[in-house]
# Entry
Amino acid sequence: GAVVSQHPSRVICKSGTSVKIECRSLDFQATTMFWYRQFPKQSLMLMATSNEGSKATYEQGVEKDKFLINHASLTLSTLTVTSAHPEDSSFYICSARAVNEKLFFGSGTQLSVL
Amino acid sequence: TQLLEQSPQFLSIQEGENLTVYCNSSSVFSSLQWYRQEPGEGPVLLVTVVTGGEVKKLKRLTFQFGDARKDSSLHITAAQPGDTGLYLCAGESFQKLVFGTGTRLLVSP
# Structure
């Protein structure tokens, strides 16, 4: 079946540094990718929708300058958390929509900001 | 903002018991999906329901989509410890998937 690879699975960084998370569709082309954030014991909150070759669409309340999204190709989208702070610590999950409209999820990235 | 409220938020039961999880919204969705998520992993799709009133069965799991396509339920028969996890409903609207508030299920042996 279709696989979405998310890397890294876990990252610990110091406050003020930037962290890049990659989301790759391994065996299909993803017309659209989505980025979610999940705090402990909570549900997934959609952060932004990423379309290849165009600017990402951010959900209300999500700072686009804080969470930079680049969807450079049909198989790769990246989320960069800039100047990370402890409150950005969370589980970040991407998903990719294939041409047949099916949606596949990555395995998530646990970000811990010290 | 579209909200999907799940109830209960947390459920702790004994092996063999039955349970139902509800997913309610004031919005209409073109489809509704149910996922199960383990700690530290991405959600795994269980089922997609599309038609109002649709009922789908997956072994001991029964999923129903409301007639108005605003709500859904998940019924588990004879729960097993392996059913433990976070259950999430998610509604598809305007090409986006919005997740419910989640139901954490714990099934004890």
Summary: The mean pLDDT of chain A is 93. Chain A is about 0% helix and 55% strand. Chain A touches chain B through 23 residues (CB under 8 Å).
